[in-house]
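Submission sheet (multi-component)
Chains listed below:
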Amino acid sequence: MLEHVRAHLTGAFRAEVALHHDPRRPADAWDARRRQHSSKKMLSFLLEQGPPPPARVLGITDQDLFIPILTFVFGEAQLGGRAAVVSTARLDDGVPVVSPRVLAERVAIECVHEVGHAYGLLHCASPRCAMGRSPSVRDVDAKKPQLCRDCLSRLAERNDRSGG
Amino acid sequence: MGNERTRILVVDDEEIVRESLGGWLEKDGFFVQSVPDGKSAVEALEKERWSILLTDLKMPGMDGLQVLEEAKKRQPDLVVVLMTAYATIDTAVSAMKLGAYDYLVKPFDPEELSLMMQKIVSQQTLVRENAVLRKALKREYGFHDVVSKSPAMQQVFELARVAARSNSTILVLGESGTGKEVMARAIHAESPRAQGPFVAISCAALTESLLESELFGHEKGSFTGASARKIGKFEAANGGTLFLDEIGDISPKLQLDLLRVLEDRRFHRVGGTDPISVDVRIVAATNRDLRKAVAEGKFREDLLYRLNVIVINLPPLRERKEDIPLLVEHFTEQLGVEMQRRIEGVSSDAMVALMSYDWPGNVRELRNVLERGAVVAQGRIIQALDLGLAPAAVPEGAAGVGAGAAAAGASDEVPATLEDVEKRHITQMLAHTGGNVSQAARLLGIDRVTLYNKIRKYQLRRGDDSGSQQRPG
Ligand SMILES: [Zn+2]
Ligand SMILES: [Zn+2]
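Outcome: structure written.
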């Protein structure tokens, strides 16, 4: 699955991607009352533990994530920042048997999505684009793990401006 | 999403909520500003225009309801969404009566939040487009307050425009409710007399002597009860237009009187001796066949000849059904202004009912039906059931999501098995939450996954209309 994600990230952002497996979990991210992990705390953990700047860091976790006002999130990213996180917990959405291939595809899509946010991209109007808004698994399934033409040119524009 | 970014103002006393909500909405492309209390919210509202206000209900100082009130005072069209904890839903519901758009129960589903914001944005776009459309419609399909795009009516408008500019007497023919008086007013407004008075009188409702004194006025003491001098409609309409409705109903004596006025533009007040001259354009109207009345000896041929200079024939509504959507648009807008509430139109079911009805009472009946609908309607959209038309076309008791509980529970048959009971209960809950699974799961006290499994098992639909109504056929 990680290789699948890596392939798509490289394709979408034309950036080097290094894989790293870290079994540690951020202790303070667990919210006992909600029985979920805070995605904000996950992001700070990644910034502390991950590679030094200017590298961007994406974490993939099987823990259910939340932000305070929402019941859950598939993932989160600092808009135009360095860190992003994606959770696999809800990507099966209660469907009893999800094939590993389907799950890997969904994770890849959401990884491209969150990393896209970290690169400063907003949600895209195209429902097929990885940057499309996807509040439910149905919406994720409608997307592809790639950026549409518009998002690619927005990305290029941002890179030009930041000189990167 | 439109070209300019939709501006959202978030009010919450918890920083972490402001931060996470702001971040989330920004990714959706909204422009977001967050403030920690009602006072700063009011300041932000005074400074700039906002499209959506998302406010927490329970806050120290000014609470969400007060923020709502202040916001609506400053910007009545602002969409206000309240965020509330489970325990305060009742307050949130009553806040909707104060003009809140909707409420979100904390914490809310990403799906719920995104759907609501998208819905608001598309409605606002629709309202903007409608306003533009309406203006274009009036220009293209309107003759003052008469709207129509039927070819027959377009010819009528052309004739009316030309006729308005002349000083000739005009006879408007058409069934009851086709809008003869509205047409007469339009002619007046289009004529060089537009600055003068428009005076209307119905000739059918009055006895001969009363009508006579109404039309021509009377001198003091001219008959019992004439305690003062009275100015008649002819004098009142001097310099303007006099609309004589139901002219086919007047007595032979008045027919003769009227003929004389039309011939020499002079008349006497009842009991008066001096002739009075007036400059009045006459527009008469009737739903009777005046030629037939002439043949039967009930109407003077010479009077018909005088009235008949220009004839405008208004077709009945059933012969120009293509105008119904246009008229609905026109009337719902008018009713909204009259009733001082927002009516955005009719549902597609309601439109089907309106289009398939035969309209014996024509445009006036259509307006009455819509007025009833607007009074009865729960929301901003008039539903088919609100119209009280052709009850066979719509199932009984299915009054939309708001009354969804009744729809699922009203049936008399006793459920056969425990599963039936469960199925019904879930259907009811989904109807209650408008198809929102997370909310329904919370209310049912089970988790989402379990509810999804049950929905699959019972093959329930979870769309917006899930379970709230079951239509036959
Ligand atoms: Zn996103
Ligand atoms: Zn895109």
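Remark: Residues A 113, 117, 123; B 27 surround zinc ion (ligand 1) (CB under 6 Å).
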